[in-house]
Write a structure and sequence with these properties.
- With about 350 residues, the chain is mainly beta.
- The chain folds into two domains: about 180 residues, Jelly Rolls (Sandwich); about 170 residues, Jelly Rolls, CATH 2.60.120.
- It contains three helices and 25 strands.
- The longest helix has 4 residues.
Length: about 350
Protein backbone atom coordinates (compact mmCIF):
# COMPACT_ATOMS: atom_id res chain seq x y z
CA UNK A 1 0.00 0.00 0.00
CA UNK A 2 1.39 3.42 -0.95
CA UNK A 3 1.98 5.91 1.90
CA UNK A 4 -0.61 8.65 2.15
CA UNK A 5 1.26 11.48 0.47
CA UNK A 6 -0.68 14.24 2.19
CA UNK A 7 1.27 13.40 5.35
CA UNK A 8 4.93 12.34 5.30
CA UNK A 9 6.60 12.10 1.90
CA UNK A 10 9.72 10.04 1.31
CA UNK A 11 12.01 10.82 -1.60
CA UNK A 12 9.99 8.48 -3.77
CA UNK A 13 6.81 10.48 -3.08
CA UNK A 14 8.09 14.02 -3.56
CA UNK A 15 6.94 14.32 -7.18
CA UNK A 16 3.30 13.53 -6.35
CA UNK A 17 0.83 16.42 -6.25
CA UNK A 18 -1.40 16.78 -3.22
CA UNK A 19 -4.30 18.91 -2.03
CA UNK A 20 -2.68 19.14 1.43
CA UNK A 21 -1.98 22.66 2.70
CA UNK A 22 1.37 23.61 4.24
CA UNK A 23 1.35 25.82 7.34
CA UNK A 24 3.85 26.92 9.98
CA UNK A 25 3.58 28.33 13.50
CA UNK A 26 6.28 30.48 15.07
CA UNK A 27 6.54 33.60 17.20
CA UNK A 28 6.03 35.53 13.94
CA UNK A 29 2.74 33.74 13.24
CA UNK A 30 1.25 32.24 16.36
CA UNK A 31 -1.83 30.83 14.62
CA UNK A 32 -0.25 29.53 11.42
CA UNK A 33 -2.87 31.36 9.37
CA UNK A 34 -2.30 31.87 5.66
CA UNK A 35 -0.85 35.30 4.87
CA UNK A 36 -0.50 36.26 8.54
CA UNK A 37 3.24 35.74 9.15
CA UNK A 38 5.68 38.58 9.83
CA UNK A 39 2.96 40.98 11.02
CA UNK A 40 4.02 41.25 14.67
CA UNK A 41 4.27 44.70 16.22
CA UNK A 42 5.53 43.47 19.60
CA UNK A 43 8.21 40.90 20.39
CA UNK A 44 11.76 40.13 21.45
CA UNK A 45 13.15 41.79 18.31
CA UNK A 46 11.13 45.00 18.49
CA UNK A 47 14.00 47.14 19.73
CA UNK A 48 16.42 45.80 17.12
CA UNK A 49 13.88 46.49 14.38
CA UNK A 50 12.95 49.98 15.59
CA UNK A 51 14.48 51.65 12.52
CA UNK A 52 12.99 49.16 10.06
CA UNK A 53 9.38 48.72 11.15
CA UNK A 54 6.75 46.09 10.42
CA UNK A 55 7.94 42.83 8.89
CA UNK A 56 11.58 43.09 9.99
CA UNK A 57 12.05 40.32 12.58
CA UNK A 58 9.98 41.93 15.30
CA UNK A 59 9.06 38.65 17.04
CA UNK A 60 11.63 35.88 16.45
CA UNK A 61 11.13 34.26 19.88
CA UNK A 62 8.93 34.18 22.96
CA UNK A 63 9.55 34.71 26.66
CA UNK A 64 8.13 32.14 29.07
CA UNK A 65 8.01 33.40 32.66
CA UNK A 66 9.21 31.14 35.47
CA UNK A 67 6.52 28.71 36.60
CA UNK A 68 4.25 29.28 33.61
CA UNK A 69 3.10 27.32 30.56
CA UNK A 70 2.96 28.74 27.04
CA UNK A 71 0.80 27.30 24.25
CA UNK A 72 3.07 27.02 21.22
CA UNK A 73 0.43 25.66 18.85
CA UNK A 74 -3.34 25.24 18.91
CA UNK A 75 -4.50 23.80 15.59
CA UNK A 76 -8.21 23.09 15.05
CA UNK A 77 -8.26 21.09 11.81
CA UNK A 78 -7.13 17.71 10.50
CA UNK A 79 -3.51 17.15 9.53
CA UNK A 80 -0.06 16.28 10.86
CA UNK A 81 2.94 17.92 12.46
CA UNK A 82 5.85 17.28 10.07
CA UNK A 83 8.84 19.17 11.54
CA UNK A 84 9.63 20.97 14.78
CA UNK A 85 12.64 23.22 15.28
CA UNK A 86 13.44 24.97 18.54
CA UNK A 87 16.27 26.26 20.67
CA UNK A 88 16.67 27.56 24.20
CA UNK A 89 19.53 27.75 26.68
CA UNK A 90 20.91 24.29 27.59
CA UNK A 91 20.81 24.96 31.34
CA UNK A 92 17.00 24.81 31.10
CA UNK A 93 16.68 21.64 29.03
CA UNK A 94 15.53 19.52 31.99
CA UNK A 95 13.19 22.15 33.41
CA UNK A 96 11.39 23.02 30.15
CA UNK A 97 8.61 20.44 29.70
CA UNK A 98 7.27 19.75 26.20
CA UNK A 99 3.71 18.40 25.94
CA UNK A 100 1.46 17.48 23.01
CA UNK A 101 -2.27 16.76 23.01
CA UNK A 102 -4.22 15.24 20.11
CA UNK A 103 -7.92 15.70 19.30
CA UNK A 104 -8.90 17.53 22.47
CA UNK A 105 -7.57 14.98 24.96
CA UNK A 106 -7.08 16.11 28.56
CA UNK A 107 -3.96 14.04 29.18
CA UNK A 108 -0.87 14.62 27.00
CA UNK A 109 0.34 12.02 24.54
CA UNK A 110 3.83 13.54 24.67
CA UNK A 111 5.40 14.67 27.95
CA UNK A 112 9.16 15.02 28.35
CA UNK A 113 11.85 17.54 29.23
CA UNK A 114 12.75 19.27 25.99
CA UNK A 115 16.41 18.22 26.12
CA UNK A 116 15.58 14.55 26.59
CA UNK A 117 12.97 14.64 23.83
CA UNK A 118 15.73 15.77 21.47
CA UNK A 119 18.28 13.23 22.82
CA UNK A 120 20.17 15.79 24.92
CA UNK A 121 19.31 14.92 28.50
CA UNK A 122 22.44 16.23 30.24
CA UNK A 123 21.89 19.97 29.64
CA UNK A 124 25.04 19.96 27.51
CA UNK A 125 24.65 19.98 23.74
CA UNK A 126 25.69 16.95 21.76
CA UNK A 127 25.09 16.83 18.01
CA UNK A 128 22.67 14.19 16.74
CA UNK A 129 22.65 13.13 13.08
CA UNK A 130 19.68 10.78 12.84
CA UNK A 131 16.63 10.50 10.62
CA UNK A 132 13.82 11.58 12.99
CA UNK A 133 15.91 13.75 15.36
CA UNK A 134 18.76 16.12 14.49
CA UNK A 135 20.60 18.42 16.87
CA UNK A 136 23.00 20.83 15.22
CA UNK A 137 25.46 23.55 16.30
CA UNK A 138 24.97 25.31 18.53
CA UNK A 139 21.73 23.96 19.93
CA UNK A 140 19.27 23.76 17.04
CA UNK A 141 16.91 20.90 17.93
CA UNK A 142 14.92 19.31 15.10
CA UNK A 143 12.26 16.60 15.06
CA UNK A 144 10.79 14.88 12.01
CA UNK A 145 8.49 12.38 13.73
CA UNK A 146 5.18 12.37 11.87
CA UNK A 147 2.38 13.37 14.25
CA UNK A 148 -1.12 13.04 12.73
CA UNK A 149 -4.30 14.46 14.29
CA UNK A 150 -7.92 14.34 13.16
CA UNK A 151 -9.55 17.26 14.98
CA UNK A 152 -6.90 19.27 16.80
CA UNK A 153 -3.31 19.48 17.99
CA UNK A 154 -2.11 21.44 21.00
CA UNK A 155 1.58 21.83 21.87
CA UNK A 156 2.70 23.52 25.09
CA UNK A 157 5.97 24.32 26.90
CA UNK A 158 6.10 24.56 30.68
CA UNK A 159 8.94 26.50 32.31
CA UNK A 160 9.68 24.85 35.66
CA UNK A 161 12.89 26.81 36.19
CA UNK A 162 13.15 29.81 38.51
CA UNK A 163 14.05 32.15 35.63
CA UNK A 164 12.31 33.47 32.56
CA UNK A 165 13.29 31.48 29.48
CA UNK A 166 13.54 32.64 25.87
CA UNK A 167 12.41 30.06 23.31
CA UNK A 168 12.86 30.21 19.54
CA UNK A 169 10.62 27.74 17.72
CA UNK A 170 8.96 26.80 14.44
CA UNK A 171 6.32 24.10 13.99
CA UNK A 172 5.73 23.03 10.38
CA UNK A 173 2.57 21.08 9.63
CA UNK A 174 0.14 20.02 6.93
CA UNK A 175 -3.63 20.37 6.85
CA UNK A 176 -5.08 17.31 5.15
CA UNK A 177 -7.26 14.27 5.64
CA UNK A 178 -5.80 11.58 7.89
CA UNK A 179 -6.30 7.91 6.93
CA UNK A 180 -8.14 5.62 9.31
CA UNK A 181 -5.07 3.50 10.07
CA UNK A 182 -2.83 6.42 11.10
CA UNK A 183 -1.91 6.12 14.81
CA UNK A 184 -1.09 8.91 17.24
CA UNK A 185 2.48 9.77 18.26
CA UNK A 186 3.45 9.34 21.93
CA UNK A 187 6.58 10.01 23.98
CA UNK A 188 7.13 9.52 27.69
CA UNK A 189 10.01 10.33 30.05
CA UNK A 190 10.93 8.33 33.16
CA UNK A 191 13.87 8.31 35.56
CA UNK A 192 15.41 5.93 38.10
CA UNK A 193 17.83 7.85 40.33
CA UNK A 194 19.37 5.77 41.66
CA UNK A 195 18.09 2.49 40.30
CA UNK A 196 17.33 0.22 43.30
CA UNK A 197 19.71 -2.72 43.73
CA UNK A 198 18.69 -5.74 41.62
CA UNK A 199 15.83 -3.76 40.05
CA UNK A 200 15.33 -2.86 36.38
CA UNK A 201 14.66 0.53 34.84
CA UNK A 202 11.17 0.62 33.33
CA UNK A 203 10.88 2.72 30.19
CA UNK A 204 7.19 1.97 29.62
CA UNK A 205 4.51 0.23 31.61
CA UNK A 206 0.75 0.11 31.39
CA UNK A 207 0.54 0.90 27.68
CA UNK A 208 -2.83 -0.33 26.41
CA UNK A 209 -4.09 -0.39 22.85
CA UNK A 210 -2.91 -1.21 19.34
CA UNK A 211 0.37 0.33 18.22
CA UNK A 212 4.09 0.07 17.58
CA UNK A 213 7.17 1.14 19.50
CA UNK A 214 9.54 3.31 17.46
CA UNK A 215 12.34 4.64 19.63
CA UNK A 216 14.45 4.82 22.78
CA UNK A 217 16.68 7.56 24.18
CA UNK A 218 18.69 7.00 27.36
CA UNK A 219 20.61 9.52 29.44
CA UNK A 220 22.70 7.17 31.60
CA UNK A 221 25.02 8.06 34.48
CA UNK A 222 27.35 5.32 35.69
CA UNK A 223 27.76 5.35 39.47
CA UNK A 224 30.42 2.60 39.59
CA UNK A 225 33.85 2.13 38.12
CA UNK A 226 34.10 -0.30 35.24
CA UNK A 227 31.75 -1.21 32.42
CA UNK A 228 28.04 -0.52 32.91
CA UNK A 229 26.34 -1.95 29.83
CA UNK A 230 25.85 -5.71 30.23
CA UNK A 231 22.11 -5.32 30.82
CA UNK A 232 19.42 -6.53 28.42
CA UNK A 233 16.45 -4.55 27.13
CA UNK A 234 13.18 -6.49 27.16
CA UNK A 235 9.83 -5.98 25.43
CA UNK A 236 6.80 -7.59 27.08
CA UNK A 237 3.74 -7.49 24.85
CA UNK A 238 0.20 -8.81 24.53
CA UNK A 239 -0.04 -11.02 27.59
CA UNK A 240 3.64 -11.64 28.38
CA UNK A 241 4.12 -12.00 32.14
CA UNK A 242 7.40 -13.22 33.64
CA UNK A 243 9.25 -13.50 30.34
CA UNK A 244 9.26 -11.16 27.33
CA UNK A 245 8.82 -11.84 23.64
CA UNK A 246 11.92 -9.78 22.74
CA UNK A 247 15.14 -9.81 24.76
CA UNK A 248 18.34 -8.02 23.77
CA UNK A 249 21.92 -9.18 24.32
CA UNK A 250 23.44 -6.13 26.00
CA UNK A 251 23.08 -2.37 26.25
CA UNK A 252 25.65 -1.39 23.63
CA UNK A 253 24.35 -4.14 21.35
CA UNK A 254 20.83 -2.69 21.41
CA UNK A 255 22.21 0.70 20.36
CA UNK A 256 24.08 -0.89 17.47
CA UNK A 257 27.57 -1.03 18.97
CA UNK A 258 29.70 -3.84 20.36
CA UNK A 259 32.46 -4.61 22.87
CA UNK A 260 31.68 -1.69 25.19
CA UNK A 261 32.14 0.89 22.40
CA UNK A 262 35.90 0.82 22.94
CA UNK A 263 37.37 2.62 19.93
CA UNK A 264 40.21 3.51 20.04
CA UNK A 265 41.52 1.28 22.81
CA UNK A 266 40.99 2.79 26.23
CA UNK A 267 38.29 5.23 25.06
CA UNK A 268 34.58 5.24 24.30
CA UNK A 269 33.93 5.83 20.60
CA UNK A 270 30.91 8.02 19.90
CA UNK A 271 28.80 7.75 16.75
CA UNK A 272 25.54 9.11 15.35
CA UNK A 273 23.79 7.34 12.45
CA UNK A 274 20.29 7.55 10.89
CA UNK A 275 18.73 4.98 13.22
CA UNK A 276 21.05 4.52 16.22
CA UNK A 277 23.90 6.12 18.10
CA UNK A 278 25.91 6.59 21.25
CA UNK A 279 26.53 10.24 20.55
CA UNK A 280 27.50 11.68 23.93
CA UNK A 281 30.10 10.90 26.58
CA UNK A 282 30.42 13.43 29.40
CA UNK A 283 33.72 12.70 31.13
CA UNK A 284 34.71 13.39 34.75
CA UNK A 285 36.93 16.44 35.18
CA UNK A 286 38.82 15.44 38.33
CA UNK A 287 36.86 17.82 40.57
CA UNK A 288 33.08 18.18 40.91
CA UNK A 289 32.16 16.31 37.76
CA UNK A 290 32.82 12.89 39.24
CA UNK A 291 30.58 10.51 37.25
CA UNK A 292 30.68 9.43 33.61
CA UNK A 293 27.55 10.13 31.59
CA UNK A 294 26.26 8.79 28.27
CA UNK A 295 23.60 9.64 25.70
CA UNK A 296 22.32 6.98 23.28
CA UNK A 297 19.38 6.48 20.94
CA UNK A 298 17.80 3.65 18.96
CA UNK A 299 15.07 4.32 16.38
CA UNK A 300 12.86 1.40 15.34
CA UNK A 301 11.97 3.08 12.05
CA UNK A 302 12.88 0.13 9.85
CA UNK A 303 11.94 -2.42 12.52
CA UNK A 304 8.98 -1.12 14.57
CA UNK A 305 7.98 -3.31 17.49
CA UNK A 306 4.28 -3.96 16.99
CA UNK A 307 1.81 -4.79 19.74
CA UNK A 308 -1.93 -5.40 19.59
CA UNK A 309 -3.09 -4.89 23.18
CA UNK A 310 -0.31 -3.90 25.59
CA UNK A 311 3.39 -3.14 25.98
CA UNK A 312 5.96 -2.94 28.75
CA UNK A 313 9.66 -2.13 28.20
CA UNK A 314 12.49 -2.56 30.72
CA UNK A 315 16.29 -2.47 30.73
CA UNK A 316 18.77 -3.98 33.17
CA UNK A 317 21.80 -2.16 34.56
CA UNK A 318 24.67 -4.65 34.87
CA UNK A 319 28.41 -4.33 35.33
CA UNK A 320 31.11 -6.74 36.49
CA UNK A 321 32.32 -7.74 39.95
CA UNK A 322 35.02 -10.16 41.05
CA UNK A 323 35.35 -13.71 39.71
CA UNK A 324 33.56 -12.92 36.44
CA UNK A 325 30.18 -12.26 38.06
CA UNK A 326 27.60 -9.67 37.05
CA UNK A 327 27.13 -6.66 39.33
CA UNK A 328 23.62 -5.14 39.49
CA UNK A 329 24.19 -1.39 39.27
CA UNK A 330 22.48 1.53 40.98
CA UNK A 331 22.87 4.11 38.23
CA UNK A 332 20.99 7.28 37.30
CA UNK A 333 18.95 6.33 34.21
CA UNK A 334 16.56 8.68 32.44
CA UNK A 335 14.67 7.38 29.40
CA UNK A 336 12.40 8.77 26.73
CA UNK A 337 10.28 6.18 24.93
CA UNK A 338 8.59 6.93 21.59
CA UNK A 339 5.68 4.99 20.12
CA UNK A 340 2.49 5.19 18.04
CA UNK A 341 -0.86 3.86 19.17
CA UNK A 342 -4.60 4.20 18.74
CA UNK A 343 -6.20 6.50 21.30
CA UNK A 344 -7.27 6.68 24.02
CA UNK A 345 -4.10 5.94 25.98
CA UNK A 346 -3.95 5.07 29.66
CA UNK A 347 -3.35 8.22 31.78
CA UNK A 348 0.17 8.49 33.23
CA UNK A 349 1.31 9.52 36.67
CA UNK A 350 2.51 13.16 36.78
CA UNK A 351 6.13 14.02 36.11
CA UNK A 352 8.24 14.28 39.28
CA UNK A 353 9.14 17.57 40.94
CA UNK A 354 11.76 20.01 39.61
CA UNK A 355 14.33 18.61 42.05
CA UNK A 356 13.69 15.06 40.84
CA UNK A 357 14.08 16.17 37.22
CA UNK A 358 17.30 18.06 37.83
CA UNK A 359 20.64 16.96 36.41
CA UNK A 360 22.79 16.59 39.54
Amino acid sequence: MQPFHGLGMGLGQLSRLSKAKTRSISAENGTGEKGKAGMATEGTGKEAARDLGLGWKVSPSIRIPAGSTFTLADIRESGAIQHIWMTCFPAAWRSMILRMYWDGEEQPSVEAPVGDFFCNGWCERSNVNSLPVAVNPAGGMNCYWEMPFRKSATITMENRSDKEQVLYFQIDYTLTEVPDDAAYFHARWRRSNPLPYKDVHTLLDGVRGHGHYVGTYLAWQSNNNGWFGEGEIKFYMDGDTDFPTICGTGTEDYFGGAWNWEQPKGEYGTYSTPFLGMHQVVKPDGLYRSQQRFGMYRWHVMDPIRFEEELRVTIQALGWRSEGRYLPLQDDIASTAYWYQAEPHVPWEPLPSKDELEVI
